[in-house]
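Q: Entry one of two.
A:
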Amino acid sequence: MFKSNFMRPLSIIAPLAIAALLGAATAPLAEPQSGGTLNTTTTGYRTLNPGVQSGAATGVPGSQIFAGLVLIDEDYKATPYLAESWSVSDDNLSYSFKLVQGAKFHDGKPITSADVAFSLDTVKTNHPFGKAMFGNVASVETPDPSTVVFQLSAPIPGLLLSLEPLLMPILPKHVYGDGQEVKKHPRNMENVVGSGPFKVAENVPAERLVLVKNEEFFIKDRPYLDKLVFSVVKDSLTRVLMMEKGEIDYIGFSGIRPTDAERLEKTGNLTVTTEGYGAIGYIHYLELNLRDKPFNDRKVREALATAIDTNFIAKILFGGRTTVGTGPLHTGSVFYTSDVPSITADLDKAAKLLDEAGYPAGANGERFSFTLDIPSWAKQAHVPMAEYTQSQLGKIGVKVELRQAPDFGTWVKRISSFDYQATMNGSFNYPDPVIGVHRHFDCDNIRNVIWSNTQGYCDPAMDAMLDAAAVETDLDKRKATYAEIQRKAAEDLVFIYMPQDFTATVYSKKVGNPPASVFGPLAPWHEVYLKN
């Protein structure tokens, strides 16, 4: 027997979303207008296919090009997109989806259940956390061209959340099913074909990406905008200047510093908001390669954590606009708990811990040294945190050499090949921990893939808890298990957690309906319009 058409996967009501909805109920509603070009920016991308690459650089444009089965609204509720309806069996082991009739890819070919089956298999195999999301999908049935059925070997509480365009874009089988390796497929960057609200008109990776309205989009009279222009701007200060000059209309994941936010707010023409990132949960951490000395010693990791005052970073370096992280879950997650072992900054104690660990200070005061990599992305956060860490550890006799990656690829190669000692890092929780958290702790996810378990942590007890949480359908029981997971991660000091990201969107007041779901800029922009 199957349940109702639309399933509410989690009983989550985001307070900010409620506030937004209440505000919308009392404010006069402007009539959306069609036409116009929205100017935005990107820091660059290696691929436009979010089915094989995680992260915002690919995800923001990718979600405009590719559609998914569902969208997730402000209340974390799945709503129809390419799937016009669905039903779930009583045992939560079978999901049946009906596709929108007449939906087409950008090249005019029809979207069928075979494309959905192909896409799920592709994402499961190639996406950095495809296995975490869809590992329990045992088979995909395609009884007719507009019906697709997922048969599960065990419940997946967050399954619908994983069917957004960002996480499972529907890929054209007739393009990507030609036998070539999908990760390196030339059509990820050239003549890209999706079924989202916008089509690729021009792709010059070093300069700009131009998307134009998909006139055959499966939602009538959408999108409102005629064109999106993504200018490649890597420097955050340049982006700020362009916003001030009115050259840019909208930037999600703006990468601005908290001090920049105050400056932009004072212009009176721009809105700076941290809303719309509920499903993202962007956290930062100091990642240590746990395979080798000295970081394979927990006491050393405790010493380093004790030397770093994350409250100072949050309040002073980031102007009080960020929140100190305590574990692998973002404080905005429904599964978050602050009831974890905590460490108070204390340089004397940190030095003593290193003595006990067998790293006494030498004649020159030095105990050991290591290289700390700084990614090429999110420099506004990583650089000050790295420089502060270098300074603090120097006070206890640990010499830190900072190494800034010249580009994203160089950093990825070092970390994913495990050829590093330590790096500043950050990742998204996504709306369900199975999607964004498990990947960092699963023993079988120690892979040469960025943002997997690159640090090399493995504990069967942690694996058992992750496995239990992944299939638990009772929300309270799941919360309890994730609380234990957070406590163990903090106790083991798998990472040294830093303040959470100051993730902000900046947009001109002429932009109507800026993306406001829990996926924010990573959701489709078909409702966005420009006011006259």
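Q: Entry two of two.
A:
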Amino acid sequence: MTRNKLHYVFGLCLMVIGFLLMLSWVKPFAIGALRVKKVDPLADVRLTVPDTAFAELDSLQRDSTFQKVDSLAKVVRRGCPIGITCIEDYSPDSTGIRNFVRALSHIKDQHNAVRIAFYGDSFIEGDVFCGSLRDTLQSVFGGEGVGYVPLTSEVAGFRTTIKHQFENWKTYSLISKKDSTVTVELGPVGFSFVPQEENWVEYKPTHHRFLKTFNTIKLYYKNQGHASVEYTLNDTITSTEELKTSNKLQEWTHKGKNIEAVRLAFLQPDSLNLFGASFESRSGVYVDNFSMRGNSGIGLYKIDENMYKDFNRYRDYKLIILQYGLNVVLEDSMNYGRYAHGMIKVVNKLKSVYPKASILLMSVSDRSSNTSGEYKTMKAIPIMRNAQRLVAERTGIVFWDLYEAMGGENSMVKMTEGKPALAAKDYTHLNFKGGRRLSGRMAKSLLYELEKYNKRHRK
């Protein structure tokens, strides 16, 4: 008589189900060009409950409103000259860029410094983009110096616009892992640098025009103890100064001439937090690079508004540029309503803490992924670009379409595989040549806005 083995089948089914449930805990990963997606054995039976808090933005994203925003973009760019990616102004009275271009218009009469705060992610780190933008604007309006520099940096050896070395620091940021035993206030850029025993940081200028020497050196800090700064100029002259004790952000300044090196060390640093340094000169344009690798931009909302305001009391920014999105787009996600909702809150906060600045949201760049052995634009990129345009429209600020300035669909493939190559082999980031080309297009757009302003006000 044959033995009944039906229970083996049942047992095998349980093993397969158990194995699939175990796989559902494994996050998506890639091995070379092979991408392994997340396993979800319950996907067909799970009920999806819509998130009512973001339902409006999500539904708008799919159909009618994005079409309306696209149409509105065509209207606001009407009359734009061929060869320029014009800035789209979504402010109620079409004055979204006025604070910035008005400051540029008077820069030579009033001998002022016009500062730009450029917030972004790894796309702009190392001054790949900002360095050329700064160089172009300083060649037109004057200015000598690289502007803001952090105390420590993951890309210090990569950056070519300043030489930077350091030792014995702890660095905290918006995106670093939280240590529940440590309470550190983050600065206006999202970083806090805490000096340890035997700390030092050294900066030297480079061979780039406008960056060959230091003249004015600044530090931004909070000191609630008795800390002091010891600074050595040109490897020879060492001086020490006490830092102000206050619960507000402070600025320390040293004015010199043709300084070729500065080494800083902080004594009795127990109650000292530093937020950054700056190298500048007389009047002109300064582009402060506030890059943070892995940042989505949403975390800027967490920074205390008084920190922003105290920083702006010293810097007096005329233009805030926001470049984000690359760290949010996913290959198989087409829904960015939640992200747009978060960025609307960020932009509205920045409008309140930088009241005399124009705010420009720069769209996500093109980014490619390998699909069936061929690199193509990720499907989520134009959707993210539209979500960002919607953020600009809802907050009444100006928008610059980097995706279009690059050439649109598959432009990153062309930049990566072209000769000369203008982008890195990750099909995501620019190299210095690519940064120079695209920042030149942004500079052209900003100068076109200045030209329009001057025509209107100097008839």
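A: Comment on entry two: The CA atoms of residues 223 and 245 lie 5 Å apart. The longest strand covers residues 191-204.
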